[in-house]
């Protein structure tokens, strides 16, 4: 067993040793109940300090992979996740007490299309005659395929983007696996990876998306998957360009076993065109398209398309749970996607969100604050001190999301995320308060007065 562990370790840091042993546990080469070699013997075999091995063992114990039983030794366990507060749950502290809550990441309700006409048009149509029918309405699948950024081998519909990501993680990622993610990234991605005991590998973003050189370096650790947001990245608003997609695809083509999972969470209210690595790597890419931001969170619908084997695995597993996503809601979505008035309303919402981003960005610039909000409904703002910013804004009745839950590793400076899509007016006043909170200037008077309309959640 000592030779097995030593041979599996390429990275002799504590983190590298823990990841190597995790993979051995997952593959069954270190089955549950196995007694591990002593810390000292592993250290001698690797030519490193026992302290480093002890730190790796502590990490594995925290992840529920191993357990030390005193003098009896250390044994492999069935993986179990320790209960911790989710990153996702840390985004909003106490919104009910704040009159202006811009922490939520939800769309403005008043910019969503009216569902009532669609419900009237579909009437009492009987859409289910068997529990084993195809999970997607044929008409909806046809429309989705027309709108897809590449030709997927198979499509299915699930209950929102997070449901899709959860099921894809379960299908693709195993305990101890390395997974490439953006840094910063959407916090639930990190929560999901932690749930299965995976190791996130952060890759930096620039104005065009993931940096190709950084991705190439990350792929050296043999990851199972790459998670990315192709447009209106949450929280930065960055959208991947077609040229960048081609460059990333060229890097990933050398790693055909890596699955790329794209989360297009903003969909039809994004101003950037739909871009996908699936155009270049259709056998490696799974694309998720959500309709929550554009057509309504309560539709709870997202489409998932990509390689047939993987999509079929997701659809088949759902048969043992929810079975399928509501065909009534699918019929509503199909109506909304093909109704001219709704298409026009969604287009108007897209323009309005762009107007709000531009107005707040411009107002912040006058105070020396350089924020990021290239697309979508969120804005990423650097601040000198996250906690000071949160408290300062709360004193003004303004709620925003802390930046730390979005970060795999610290970015070198603190940030906050503001759901600018909920800011309807008062942009100049809000920019002044945000500048004070960001610490870009000294305030010599009392609290700044401001007049804001609360965004509907």
From TrEMBL:
In the C-terminal section; belongs to the class-I pyridoxal-phosphate-dependent aminotransferase family. Gene3D superfamilies: Type I PLP-dependent aspartate aminotransferase-like (Major domain), Winged helix-like DNA-binding domain superfamily/Winged helix DNA-binding domain. The keyword Transcription applies. It comes from Phytohabitans rumicis. The keyword Transcription applies. It comes from the Bacteria. This is GntR family transcriptional regulator. Pfam families: Aminotran_1_2 (PF00155), GntR (PF00392). PANTHER family: HTH-TYPE TRANSCRIPTIONAL REGULATORY PROTEIN GABR, TRANSCRIPTIONAL REGULATORY PROTEIN.
């Amino acid at each position: 067993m000592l030779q097995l562990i030593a041979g599996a370790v390429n990275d002799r840091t504590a983190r590298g040793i823990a990841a190597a042993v995790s993979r051995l546990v997952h593959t069954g080469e270190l089955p549950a109940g196995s007694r591990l070699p002593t810390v000292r013997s592993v250290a001698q075999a690797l030519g490193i300090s026992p302290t480093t091995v002890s730190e790796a063992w502590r990490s594995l114990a925290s992840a529920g992979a191993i357990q030390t039983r005193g003098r009896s030794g250390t044994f492999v366990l069935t993986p179990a996740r320790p209960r911790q507060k989710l990153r996702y749950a840390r985004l909003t502290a106490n919104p009910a007490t704040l009159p202006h809550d811009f922490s939520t990441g939800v769309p403005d309700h008043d910019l969503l299309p009216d569902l009532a006409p669609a419900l009237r048009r579909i009437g009492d149509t009987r859409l289910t005659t068997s529990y084993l029918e195809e999970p997607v309405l044929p008409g909806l699948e046809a429309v989705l395929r027309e709108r897809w950024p590449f030709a997927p081998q198979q499509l299915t519909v699930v209950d929102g983007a997070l449901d899709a990501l959860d099921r894809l993680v379960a299908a693709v990622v195993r305990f101890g696996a390395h997974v490439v993610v953006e840094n910063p990234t959407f916090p639930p991605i990190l929560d999901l990876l932690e749930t299965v005991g995976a190791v996130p590998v952060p890759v930096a973003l620039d104005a065009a998306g993931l940096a190709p050189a950084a991705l190439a370096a990350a792929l050296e650790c043999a990851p199972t998957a790459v998670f990315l947001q192709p447009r209106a990245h949450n929280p930065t608003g960055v959208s991947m360009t077609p040229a960048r997609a081609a460059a990333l695809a060229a890097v990933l083509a050398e790693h055909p076993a890596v699955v790329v999972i794209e989360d297009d969470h903003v969909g039809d209210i994004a101003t950037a065109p739909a871009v996908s690595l699936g155009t270049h790597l259709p056998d490696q890419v799974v694309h998720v398209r959500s309709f929550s931001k554009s057509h309504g969170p309560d539709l709870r619908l997202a489409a998932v398309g990509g390689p047939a084997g993987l999509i079929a695995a997701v659809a088949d597993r759902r048969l043992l749970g929810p079975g399928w996503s509501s065909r009534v809601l699918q019929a509503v979505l199909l109506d909304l996607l093909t109704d001219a008035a709704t298409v026009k309303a969604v287009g108007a919402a897209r323009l309005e969100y762009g107007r709000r981003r531009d107005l707040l960005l411009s107002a912040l610039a006058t105070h020396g604050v350089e924020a990021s909000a290239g697309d979508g409904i969120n804005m990423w703002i650097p601040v000198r001190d996250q906690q000071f910013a949160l408290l300062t804004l709360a004193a003004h009745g303004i709620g925003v999301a802390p930046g730390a839950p979005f970060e795999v590793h610290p970015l070198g400076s603190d940030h906050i995320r503001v759901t600018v899509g909920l800011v309807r007016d008062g942009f100049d006043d809000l920019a002044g308060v945000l500048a004070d909170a960001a610490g870009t200037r000294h305030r010599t008077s009392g609290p700044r007065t401001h007049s804001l309309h609360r965004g509907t959640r």
